[in-house]
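job 3f2a | input accepted
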Amino acid sequence: MHQARQHAHQHAQTRTRERRRRVAHEAARLMAESGYRDYHQAKLKAAERLGIFDDASLPANREIEDALREYQRLFQREHADGLRQRREAALRAMEFFAGFEPRLVGPVLEGTADARSPVALHLYCDDFEAVPRFLEQHHIPAETRERRLRLDRERAEDFPVWVFSAEELGFDLTVLPLDVLRQAPLSNVDEKPMKRASTAQVRQMLAEEEISLFERG
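job 3f2a | predicted structure (217 res):
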């Protein structure tokens, strides 16, 4: 009797895992092909399409991100070229904004960027007017916005954002105080500290990609 219960439990777990995988892959497809930008929205739409409504079968955002990376690698051959183009543009932008301790964040760093993804940078400066002054000095027309970021589990604040286009790409600059450089804000994907890369790390990443391409080709 105990063995039968254990077998039934294992079977249910396997079925739930398979459902999570199916929802994650359908959500990834929606994000890659239909322009969904929000993991939660894509997850709910995918579950609805597959007729899966129990919470246990809904994947975590990070599972969807992994599935999206896999989908892009398998089905979007131009993805690697577009990603490299954005990472190279990110490096040039980071060198340009060197005085603001830039860090690359978001899909361009994570490897899930598509044709609609801007190059997202965090710039650090206690004088929030310094970035618009710098843009103005270099004759870069930019629009201002605001973004709410969670600095930790208890604190969320609004920060200025500047967006502009260059090299036929969008750039998205969030300006943060210098003390936030010590610990990254929380990611809205998994609520853990956001992955971010310094100029040296982005340069290293591009060099490793080039070596890998050379070895493959």
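job 3f2a | The first strand starts at residue 103 and ends at 105.
job 3f2a | closed
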